[in-house]
Write a structure and sequence with these properties.
This protein is α/β, with parallel strands linked by helices. The chain has a single domain, classed as Rossmann fold, CATH 3.40.50.1580. Helices cover 33% and strands 25% of the residues. It has a five-stranded mixed barrel with strand order 5-9-8-6-10. It starts with 27 loop residues before the first strand and ends with a helix.
Length: 279
């Protein structure tokens, strides 16, 4: 349904060869929202092997990281903001043969009783409060993170000894930041009530991309040819987000820098755990 051996991307400059690595399991790809963060992630690689620039600001950085004396093939590319942009970039990566994806971004907290700005959120699933995923599948179809990626992130927190709080739960993926969170526009009352409902339901954080990532990767994994559970063709997806405050509380620059660095390191160790487990 997704992979195409003859595909030539329209919006990125990646190739089929760029998606190869990790003994046939595929290069592990970080998906930040911004091109600047993709560059920042690449600067933390042990080795950058290539940079494929894009006129649209979706540069692909490929390289290697080494954890516990094991070299792991990784990459980073921006998805842009919102599910329509993820739709384009992720589809092109899947058509090129990409298989393992970890979104690393920011989110607004919803559970102030036990969360605070500076924490990290790990998504188990996403509320599909967007319209782009409905172009693929009815709203009853769930947007679920890969269990293997979630477990790898949980193991990674222990392995690296991360002291920053990590909260596991359902995230909210929305179309409009200004309407849903900042209450801009004529539907202020309805948006306030909607967000309060999500808080009451236990959603841990709100962001704008995970629902498309989980929906597309869930379908791609379901259509793999090799049905073995440990198949190298498995398509896996996860999401880690650095938690900002509520609504327009974005924290201090120092706090944001520190937690994003920790989140990226957690992402590195998540891929290391994934690699160790044979995915």
């Amino acid at each position: 349904m997704f992979f195409d051996a003859n595909f030539e991307p329209l919006h990125i400059t990646a190739t089929h060869e760029d998606m190869l690595g990790n003994n046939g399991h595929g290069r592990y790809i970080f998906l930040p929202g911004s091109n600047g963060r993709a560059k920042k992630i690449s600067e933390m690689f042990d080795k950058i092997t290539n940079i494929k620039t894009s006129s649209r600001g979706h540069d692909l950085y490929t390289g290697e990281i080494t954890i516990d004396n094991t070299k792991i093939d990784v990459g980073a590319i921006s998805t842009g903001m919102g599910t329509p942009s993820v739709d384009i970039i992720l589809n092109e990566l899947l058509k090129l043969g990409g298989k393992k994806f970890l979104r690393v971004g920011t989110c607004g907290l919803l559970q102030s009783k036990f969360m605070k700005g500076g924490d990290i959120a790990l998504a188990t699933a996403a509320v599909r409060d967007d319209h782009a995923t409905e172009c693929y599948i009815p709203p009853e179809y769930p947007a679920v993170a890969s269990y293997e990626m979630v477990q790898a992130a949980i193991n990674a927190q222990k392995t690296m000894g991360l002291t920053r709080n990590v909260h596991v739960g359902i995230m909210h993926s929305k179309d409009s930041l200004y309407a849903r969170e900042f209450k801009q526009g004529a539907m202020q009352k309805q948006n306030t009530e909607y967000m309060e409902t999500l808080k009451n339901a236990g959603a841990v954080a709100s962001e704008m991309e995970a629902s498309m990532l989980f929906t597309l990767c869930g379908m791609a994994d379901a259509h793999r040819e090799n049905r073995d559970l440990m198949s190298k063709d498995r398509v896996l997806a996860g999401t880690l987000c650095a938690v900002l405050g509520e609504e327009d509380d974005f924290g201090t620059p120092e706090m944001v820098t520190a937690m994003i660095n920790d989140m990226i390191r957690l992402g590195f160790y998540t891929f290391a755990e994934l690699h160790k487990a044979g995915w």
